[in-house]
Amino acid sequence: MINDLIQRFMLKTKYAIIDFDVETSVLTLLTYGSRGTFKRSLMDVSLDTSLVSDLDVTQACYLGLKMAEFLQYKNEPMTPKQETQARRVPQGVTHQVSFDRHGHVIYVDPESDIMISQSALLIAKNDTLLRKFSPDVGYAIGLYAGKRLYAKPSAVALISSGPFYVDNVVELR
Amino acid sequence: MVKKRYDTFLAMATYCILITCAISGQNLINVFGLTVTSGMFVFPFTYMFIAASTELYGAQTTRQTIIYCTAANAVMLGVIFLFTQIPSERSAIGSAEVYHAFLNRFSYVLGISTLAFAISENVNVWLLSRLKVLTHGRLFIQRAFLSTVCAVTLDTMLVFPFYFSRQGSFSQAAMEASMVLGMKIFYDIALLPLCWGMVACIKSITAAPTLPQSATPFTSSYYLKQYD
After folding, report:
1. Strand pairing category for A170-172 and A115-119
2. Is the C or the N end of chain B the one with fewer CB within 10 Å?
3. Cβ distance of A18 and B215 shorter than 8 Å
4. How far apart are CA B210 and CA A1, in angstroms?
5. From the candidates B3, B218, B221, which should be mutated to test the interface with A, based on the most A CB atoms within 10 A?
6. Is A41 helix (H, G, I), strand (E, B) or coil?
7. Which of residues 102-131 of A touch B (CB under 8 A)?
8. CA distance linking residue B40 with residue B28, whole number of Å
9. Is A73 strand, coil or helix?
10. Which residue of B has its CA nearest to A146?
11. What whole-number percentage of chain A has pLDDT above 90?
């Protein structure tokens, strides 16, 4: 009960995804403060950066995965601007994270200060690892993991056999 | 991940208590027939904040807090010494002699309490962190109690010259010190639930948010299980 009260007043995570309609690609979101729900399309939620940053990181990653699936098998037209926005990668020193073309996330571990390179898919599967990142980065990780997940088999082989040239990086696959 | 940290708050609270203790140390009050300084009731709060800081942020961060508090007090002592060297005719609280006497007494109490704080709190932190490793992070109340009792005992021994200067004889000073020690330990025990509550509250605030049950299927790890 105390935890619930703290979450209500501190407003750490403002929204939670509680339903997803596969047919129409519509998400149902729960608002923490008022306990009300509202519906938004997957594209609307993904393009709204402030809404993504108010989700839990695991759910932001789920959103990224779903968006990657949507972009791979899309049957709805998207403008180039929308597509660029949907494929956005958070940049800047605050995130301390980058993505390479082999589907790896390169980041500085806040606890050990070691630069680590890890598969986006591996991070997306592990909640503890994922909680090291902000929801914006979680969305991008989901997007990269989804790209790997829904890629054609030939593309997967190309990704996994790719060379790795980053110095001073601990590689964990 | 941006994680809220409350180590600055705990450090500031510790320093505020330390200063308040030095100021209230001038005031003598009668408790059950025993004359003690009112600072005695304020100083144990530092043990509470230091124990909470050690539990939440580790020994290294807490030692830094202790070093900074000691350094700040040393600077303050230096500045007070410079003030006393400036000739003045009168002060806001009366004649210049009264003001200088207050400053001398204040710097004496501040110096002795800072020294006691630096040594006893370092012992407190060391013991609490060692016990945390031994107990695998469990039994916080028991660990805090044991480390605080050791630190309070050491603190009272270090402040013994202060009692001796007031009482005049060794036996009376020893009697006062033992009575004060007993009261301090009793007071610390009374503060332990407050300390535990503060630690639990900060842990709860900084913990990862819990998702509602209905949201669990819409997390990445749950979703990716179907691809394993």
Report:
1. parallel
2. C
3. yes
4. 12
5. B218
6. strand
7. 110, 121, 124-127, 130-131
8. 10
9. coil
10. B224
11. 11
